[in-house]
Amino acid sequence: MSKIKDFLKKKDIVFSGKRYGIDALGAMAQGLFCTLLVGTILNTIGQQFHIGFLNAIIATIGTGDGAVSYTIGGLASAMVGPGIAIAIGYALKCPPLVLFSLIPVGFAANTMGSAGGPLAVYFVAILACECGKLVSKETKIDILVTPIVTVLVGIGFAALVAAPIGTAASAVGNAVKWATTQQPFIMGILVSVIIGIALTLPISSAAICAALGLTGLAGGAAVAGCCAQMVGFAVMSFRENRWGGLVAQGVGTSMLQMPNIVKNPRIWIPPILASAITGPLATCLFKLEMNGAAVSSGMGTCGFVGQIGVYTGWVNDAQKVITAWDWIGLVLICFVLPALLSWLFCLVLRKWGWIKDNDLKLDL
Fold it and tell me: Cβ-count burial of 244 within 10 angstroms (0-12 exposed, 13-18 middle, 19+ buried)?
């Protein structure tokens, strides 16, 4: 047993919740961002500002009725599977040959997983990565053995589990979306609070939303919860962190507050309460829907990807007439209410002594 442990240690294979539940999931979100999200943003910018080179077809795959044409953004989005797989491999500290072999593995898993492809890539990439590390540099023909093992294990595992994982993820996502339409008030609170908390935790709310295909009203509630966390922390900690903290948290990530939350969990109360209010307002009053890329539902105000996603859904819906009420709802849910509510709740907790000076201070 000790020899096995020593071998795994030498290969840097660590079976832990942090390695797979935090490091890998966080990397998955980065892979999503650099492919699917960037592609969506580029397509939206090209369409709305009529930028020729962003709208131009630069590649066509297939012939006849089955041909698929791609813009720059379309190609970036199409690489979501390889992007996730390589990001996970990098987070798990893969040797180069294993890392590069994850490209076809990610593409295969995402394709076989259909709507739940990102979640399938997550599981498949982890297994392929660790198996590749086991054989890496163990033979004199490493340049053949390592890529072959990684690709065969990865695509073989994908053939077994990708479709069921995709089906299960789609079923869960559809159930959440259905429940939100049936009980928009209750589900608005639950989705907003849960996804918002996930955004601040060292896991990926974007990856969760993408894996579940969380769009529609449920996606709108998720956007509300994420914005409540990011904008909430940015505004309520302004006295400690000033403009640098406002930008870092409001356009970057509220995850920066995790060390402070560990020290004093009460600082989490204001943005959570804010999300519990903005979530049902988004679903019941403003009917805010995320019909862009599902991953955008879990991004909040990070690079304004959440808002771009909502807007993309509007413009892609031929039946949608964008009204002033839509814009009012988007601005209130994403910016004004999270800022105001979190600041007010924080003010009360400061008066009670639950939040003290420098409890929200960031090391910027």
Answer: exposed
- Which pTM value belongs to this model? 0.76
Q: 85: pLDDT confidence band, cut at 50, 70 and 90?
A: very high
User: Does residue 361 sit in helix, strand or coil?
Assistant: coil
SS3 321: coil
The string of pLDDT tens digits covering residues 117-169 is 888 999 999 999 999 999 999 999 999 999 999 999 999 999 999 999 888 88
Instruction: Specify the pairing of strand 68-70 against strand 59-61.
Output: antiparallel
Q: How many CA atoms lie within 13 A of 144 on its CB side?
A: 3
Burial 28-54 (b: 16+ CB within 10 A, else e): bbbbbbbbbbbbbbbbbebbeeeeeeb
Contact 7, 56 (CB under 8 A): no
Chain segment 204-244, per-residue pLDDT in tens = 688 788 878 889 999 999 999 999 999 999 999 999 999 99
Q: Name the token pair of 55.
A: 């709208």
pLDDT at position 116 over 80: no
CB 257 within 8 A of CB 277: no
**Most confident of the following: 39-43, 97-101, 298-302:** 97-101
Q: Could you tell me which residues are beta bridge partners of residue 216? A: 290
The C-alpha atoms of residue 256 and residue 230 are separated, in whole angstroms, by 10
The answer for residues whose C-beta is within 8 angstroms of residue 101's C-beta and 6 or more apart is 128, 132, 146, 147, 150, 151, 154
Geometric angle at alpha carbon 305, from 39 and 207, rounded to 5°? 80
One-letter amino acid for residue 166 of the chain = G
CA distances from 21 to 17, 84, 145 (A): 5, 15, 29
d(CA 71, CA 30): 22
Residue ranges of the domains in the chain? Answer: 2-168, 183-352
46 token code pair: 């090209």
- The two tokens of residue 23 are 């490091």
The reported pLDDT for the residue numbered 40 is 76
Sequence letter at residue 264: N
Nearest to 309 by CA among 234, 231, 239, 206: 206
Q: How many angstroms from the chain centroid is the CA of residue 328?
A: 25
User: CA 186, CA 284: separation in Å to the nearest integer?
Assistant: 10
- Name residue 219's beta-bridge partners: none
